[in-house]
Amino acid sequence: ELYVGSMNTLDTRSSEVVVKKKVLNWLKNYLADEANRENTVPVNLGIEEPTLTPLIASYNEIQLQRSTLLKTTTPLNPRVQDMAVTLNKLKADIIEALKNVEKSYDILYTQLQQKYNQAQSKATSVPGKARQLINIERQQKIKEELYILLLSKKEEVAIGAAALVPNSAVIQAATERANLVSPIAASVYLKFLLGGLAIPILIIAGIEFFNDKITVKSDIENNTETPIAGEVGNSDDPSPLLVTKQNRSFITEQFRAIRTNMAFLTKQNEKPTILVTSSMSGEGKSFVSTNIGAAYALAGKKTLIMEFDIRKPKVASNLGVTSRRGISTFLVTNDQANDLIMKVNDVDGLYLLPCGVIPPNPSEMLLIDKIDELFDWAKANFDVIIVDSAPVGVVSDAISLGRFADVTLYIIRQGYTVKKVVEMIDKLYANKRLPNMAIIINDVSAKHGYGYGYGYGYGYGYGKQDGDYFDTRRKKKKFPFLSKT
After folding, report:
1. CA-to-CA distance for 122 and 53, rounded, in angstroms?
2. pTM (predicted TM-score)
3. pLDDT tens sequence across 217-226
4. Rounded distance, CA 385 to CA 405, Å?
């Protein structure tokens, strides 16, 4: 009934569309007939289109005005001629609108026919579906009756079984097993052993995952092609100057090894200029500069340390030197460089040119022409020049001083420098922003993991005459539990 009702509705609408199409054809023929040229177009024919109705209304209104005007004037009147032109234009627009409306009616008629065919197809399939539904209901009724029959039989069997005396008897009572069934000791021990191994591994992996500091040598080697010139171990000695004639500690020998490696970096330059920089403050740049300078001085080289970290100088204060005259006064006054250098105590041949007064414009100070004059004087009077500059990761002073240097030593501190700095070092090395870059790893300690250092206490000889390669004697602390771990 639903499909048949839908078919009737669609058929009625299709008939209405056909009637409207016939009315449209009649209107087109009416307008095309020259006999109706001065007549108005009929309205209220059952076609209500928003584009067509206003055009017909305008056409009829102008046609009436023209007829009224012709009663008092001739067709040659300019106003009558203008109306004729307007009427021709409106007639063309009405014919074009009739064509568009006819196309829309054709589309609507096609859609109505498609829906009518779909409804008719569904209506013809209803008897077959009804027959299938009857078959399903018949099968359901048969199976329901069978289920009820079997359920009643099950209850009858259960009642009959409950009334019978059991024909079984216990021959032997159950006994307990002699062996333990559960828990299995080996399995428990194995689980706890695996747990004891897994928990520390997870903890260590978590610590390494959240650690952003350089701890092992591979953190550097895997992320940059920059060569490593040497390593400096951790020291409990508070003195900033460890490389002396009397000191035979392991760290002193490390600085001597760095001095040896520098020969390859300076390419046998007889008077090298070594620029020392780092990424941030606190990585030991001033400490390394002082002791490398002392290592060269002990080798018979007249060495000058130039304190060019004019923002935060530390070399002079670490060595106990206090002077308000230095590099800054040389650049802005007529002071001579010979009058500004100071000899470092305990090391023959080691001299210091302090920073002097900290200027308000450090970056601009490095652009003064007297910088060239200062370096020319230093290279003429000293065998080795150590330039202690500001951190390159903070300011650009080291980049400006790079043009005077033969080698650049980049200081990285274990457990302090962040890993992302290595990417910056690699870019500086690849782009050659600093000359002959090499890395010095400072504050190396075995507590951070493997990959650094060479150990202590290698001896030779026998009995009481045994000795170490290095002087490993250390002052015993009064409170060892307060020592750095």
Report:
1. 40
2. 0.55
3. 888 888 889 9
4. 9
